[in-house]
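Researcher: Good morning. I'm working through a list of sequences from a screen, and I'd like to move beyond sequence-only analysis. For each chain I'm collecting a predicted structure so we can compare shapes side by side. This is the next one on the list. No need for commentary yet; just the structure.
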Amino acid sequence: MNTFAVVTGVVSLIAFALQVRDVFPQYRKYYERVTLVFGGFTAGLCVTSFTNLTLTAP
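Model: Good morning. Structure tokens for this chain:
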């Protein structure tokens, strides 16, 4: 796994912990979206690392 995968994984775990503990209730709608985005990044990076695919940006 590369550095980007590790960072997105850590950020998604932190965002999930903030969401579960409801630390900042006024920002709930924002960190719900952040959790979904970074969770998607993490899942996509894990899938590509297991299948040895390479993703390139145009």
